[in-house]
Amino acid sequence: MINNKKKQIYFVVLLALLFQTAYQGNIMLTTLYAVHLHAHSAFLGVIVALSALFPMLLAIYSGKATDRVGFKLPLAIGMIGCGTALLLPFIVHNQLWILLVSQSLFGLFQIFTIVTIQNLVGALSDTKNYSKNYAILSQGTSIGELLGNVLTGFAIDHIGYGFTYVFLATLAVISGLAFLFNFVKVPKYKKKKQVQSDKFIDLLASRNLRKTFITSGIILTGVFLFSFYFPVYGRSIHLSTSLIGLVLGANTAAYFIIRLVMPRLNAAFSDMHLLGICLLLSSIGFILIPLITNFYFLVSLSFVMGLGLGCCQPLSMSMAYLFSPKNRTGEVLGIRLAVNKFAQVIVPIISGPLGGTLGTLPVFWTNAALFIYGGVSMFTPELTDKNKNPNQTS
Question: pTM for the complete prediction?
Answer without folding.
Answer: 0.77
